[in-house]
Amino acid sequence: MSTKEPKDAEDLKRGFEDTAKSLGLSGIILQSSAKSRIDYDRSRDELDDAGFSVEAVPVDNSATELQSISKGQSIAAIIPAYNEADSLPEVITATAPYVDDVFVIDDASTDDTEAVAREHADEVVSLPKNMGVGGAVDTGYRAAIRSGYDIVIQIDGDGQHDPSYIPKMLETMEDRDADMVIGSRWLNDSYQDYSLVRRMGIKFFTAEVNVLGGVDITDVTSGFRAYRASMLDDLGRPANSHWALEQTLEAGRKEYIVEEISVPMPPDTDGSQFDIETFAKYPPRMMLTTLKTLLLR
Ligand SMILES: Nc1nc2c(ncn2[C@@H]2O[C@H](COP(=O)(O)OP(=O)(O)OP(=O)(O)O)[C@@H](O)[C@H]2O)c(=O)[nH]1
Ligand SMILES: [Mg+2]
């Protein structure tokens, strides 16, 4: 059950109860916030004590297997979002069970992204002007570091990244003692659905980072990542264009351990930043980013 007006919520609740009673049901569990998964066992126990209807008890993340994977370390998800009002609720809801808190960085969207984020996320940072993906993710890193989280998950707000891969990322981080884990579309078939130009670009710059940064990865432009906050704190602030190249190269050169897992990632046909102009500017800007990282970091 999710609605903005409290009065409507009460009406809706009564409506559900009346319908359930008329159907002869023995009780109902109501969920007013879609932020967490429902702990059905505990909700049923509460229902036994409370009567006909009860508010759903959320899954307690600290009790889940996930906490044993991440050894009790605190985890924040950061979601950069620019005009993602349609996809954002589902992304937040699906991410929340795997982390302690979900931060949305609204990059001065012109649609309802901010309102949607405030309804579903734990924390919302609203940027006063559009900063681009690099600026938005860096704002998220700083917010998570300031709040003392141990691990940061970065996931896009457009629905391209499947949050159910987060446990695998955390497991890989622990098993391989990694500082960064990247979700790669090159370790499965999904890269084949991207345009030839885009694939060539990703291939080329990934090879470049592998050679110059001493890492061994397949998908440097992926924005689905897990980080140790201590490493993020040690890296410089990535500039807006090509934050992923800059960040991965710097991490490699500073000898942080960068690992990957396979994550299927369909191309985004809606609202992609990869228009003709971006393609044209891509190679020189990537080169500049590389030089800057090599010389200044
Ligand atoms: N395009 C764009 N995205 C932004 C901006 N600020 C934050 N974002 C968010 O950053 C994330 C990545 O942006 P995308 O445009 O999806 O970039 P991408 O996934 O590398 O490219 P596509 O495969 O074309 O989607 C999304 O969640 C965006 O909403 C911005 O100024 N422009
Ligand atoms: Mg995208």
Automatic annotation (TrEMBL):
Keywords attached to this Swiss-Prot or TrEMBL record, sorted alphabetically, are: Transferase
**Membrane-spanning residues:** none
> Ranges for the Glycosyltransferase 2-like domain?
77-235
**GO molecular function annotations of the record:** transferase activity
Top-level taxon of origin? Archaea
Name of the protein in question: Glycosyl transferase
Source organism per entry reads Halorubrum kocurii JCM 14978
What's the source species' lineage? Archaea, Methanobacteriati, Methanobacteriota, Stenosarchaea group, Halobacteria
